[in-house]
């Protein structure tokens, strides 16, 4: 992998698109691309995660952001993405920089092989001094199957390429301890524990799908991958280099603790729950101590439709998420094995195996520096008799 410093930059819709006219802010885009081109010449490898396709396409489908449903937004994304990329291409070429488009879905980021394919593509683009511009493929995304916002997507990308820094440019200077409009609000310049600041992160922009909450979630994902995060205002002149040279204030989210292996980091930073298991408290304690995997006899309940190789979220009886791990079986096989404990596994699923449902080496135990996910509220597919 290249020894050049890698920076992932995330740009939100509110910086790229005028909220009233739903047209591009060319002044900001020109300042951004000029800055990125200069940094590229100085030896940085840069990835841009960019929102904006939905906002730019809404005029073409005759909708406003507040009135658009999921089908309207999908159609708007299909209309707006060519406009966005054409603008990036034109502005970048004025500064002597080549760009490439990469549209991804949640499945691309969650399935290990596709995840690595995306990584390898970006590394090859770096070798040719081409700027990858990544966005979620909003034209096929739905509420139930999507990355959710480009803040967390940018953190996944930073994890993927083992970036040195994630910079999230937004419409405010950084994080405050309460609503910035409050005269008593205090600016927070440095964060170690993201969870301490979640209560002050409500609210989203008119055009964006996330707010400061998703930025904090992204910062936590980046922290766990060993990547420092900066949240700063997206100004027109030198929006990135002015931050790198410490010329204005911003919020810095530090990396704390020891970074896990790339596989364990990938396990921890999930964008979608493939499935869940609930296990007894005694087993949960043993799993948390790294003493065992999860066998079919350990399962209280199963939720979700998952396949072999998916990442499952593991909860104790009280609904606290304790771990995440790669499953060796599908949800159907897991249910059959858990329901028929007195029958040999090969007679239940049709082939011999000595594997646990989740092997101990494929489990990531959640520590204090991970933000857990609340247990799903839908009914489990299977509950063991107790």
Description:
Keywords: Amino-acid biosynthesis, ATP-binding, Cytoplasm, Kinase, Nucleotide-binding, Proline biosynthesis, Transferase. Substrate binds at residues 51, 138, 150. Belongs to the glutamate 5-kinase family. The chain has 386 residues and is an alpha/beta fold. The protein folds into two domains: 6-264, Acetylglutamate kinase-like (Carbamate kinase); 273-383, Archaeosine Trna-guanine Transglycosylase, Chain: A, domain 4 (Roll). The protein has helices spanning 13-16, 26-41, 53-57, 70-94, 106-110, 112-127, 150-160, 212-224, 241-244, 262-268, 281-288, 331-339, 345-349, and strands at 6-11, 45-50, 98-104, 130-136, 165-170, 175-176, 187-188, 190-191, 228-233, 251-253, 275-278, 301-303, 311-315, 321-326, 363-365, 382-383. The strands form three sheets. It has an eight-stranded mixed β-sheet, sandwiched between helices. It has a six-stranded mixed β-sheet with strand order 15-14-13-11-12-16, with helices on both faces. Strands 6-7 form a two-stranded antiparallel sheet. α2 packs across α4 (70-94) and α7 runs parallel beside α8 (212-224). The chain is globular. The model is unreliable at 143-148 (pLDDT under 50).
Short overview:
By secondary structure, the protein is α/β, with parallel strands linked by helices.
Descriptive key words:
single chain; 386 residues; alpha/beta; Carbamate kinase; Archaeosine Trna-guanine Transglycosylase, Chain: A, domain 4; 8-stranded mixed beta sheet; 18% strand
Distance from first to last alpha carbon:
52 Å
Any idea what the CATH architecture of the largest domain is? 3-Layer(aba) Sandwich
CATH-assigned homologous superfamily of the largest domain: Acetylglutamate kinase-like
Which shape, going by the Cα principal axes? globular
Order of helices and strands: EHHEHHEHHEHEEEEHEHEHEHEEEHHEE
* Overall number of structural domains: 2
Average of pLDDT: 85
State the major sheet: 8 strands, mixed
Indicate the structural class. alpha/beta
Number of strands: 16
Helix content estimate: 25-40%
State the low-pLDDT regions, or none: 143-148
Strand order of the largest sheet: 3-4-2-1-5-9-10-8
Q: Say what oligomer this is.
A: single chain
- Summed up, the helix count is 13
CATH class of the largest domain: Alpha Beta
Radius of gyration, rounded?
22 Å
**Residue fraction in strands:** 15-25%
Indicate the CATH topology of the largest domain. Carbamate kinase
């Amino acid at each position: 992998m290249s020894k050049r410093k890698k920076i992932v930059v995330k740009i939100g819709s509110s910086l790229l698109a005028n909220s009233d006219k739903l047209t591009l802010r060319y002044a900001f885009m020109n300042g951004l691309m000029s800055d990125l081109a200069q940094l590229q010449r100085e030896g940085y490898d840069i990835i841009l995660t960019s929102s904006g396709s939905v906002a730019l396409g809404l005029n073409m489908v005759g909708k406003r952001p507040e009135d658009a449903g999921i089908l309207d937004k999908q159609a708007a994304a299909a209309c707006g993405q060519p406009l966005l990329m054409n603008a990036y291409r034109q502005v970048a070429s004025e500064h002597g920089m080549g760009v490439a488009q990469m549209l991804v879905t949640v499945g691309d980021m969650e399935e290990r092989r596709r995840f690595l394919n995306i990584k390898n593509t970006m590394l090859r683009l770096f070798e040719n001094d081409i700027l990858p511009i990544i966005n979620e493929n909003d034209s096929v995304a739905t509420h139930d199957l999507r990355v959710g916002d480009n803040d967390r997507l940018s953190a996944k990308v930073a994890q993927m390429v083992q970036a040195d820094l994630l910079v999230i440019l937004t419409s405010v200077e950084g994080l405050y301890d309460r609503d910035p409009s409050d005269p008593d609000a205090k600016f927070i310049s440095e964060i170690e524990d993201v969870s301490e600041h979640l209560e002050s992160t409500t609210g989203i922009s008119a055009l964006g799908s996330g707010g400061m909450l998703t930025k904090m979630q992204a910062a936590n994902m980046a922290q766990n991958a060993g990547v420092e995060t900066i949240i700063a205002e997206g100004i027109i002149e030198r929006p990135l280099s002015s931050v790198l040279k410490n010329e204005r204030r911003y919020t810095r989210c530090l990396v704390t603790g020891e970074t896990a292996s790339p596989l364990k980091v990938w396990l921890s930073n999930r964008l979608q729950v493939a499935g869940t298991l609930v296990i007894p408290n005694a087993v949960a304690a043993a799993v948390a101590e790294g003493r065992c995997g999860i066998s079919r006899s350990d399962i209280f309940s199963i939720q979700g439709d998952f396949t072999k190789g998916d990442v499952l979220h593991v909860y104790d009886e009280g609904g606290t998420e304790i771990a995440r791990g790669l499953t060796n079986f599908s949800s159907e096989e897991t249910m059959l094995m858990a329901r028929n404990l007195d029958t040999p596994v090969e007679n239940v699923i049709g082939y011999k195996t000595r594997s646990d449902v989740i092997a101990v080496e494929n489990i990531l135990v959640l520590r204090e520096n991970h933000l857990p996910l609340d247990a799903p509220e839908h009914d489990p597919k299977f509950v063991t008799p107790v």
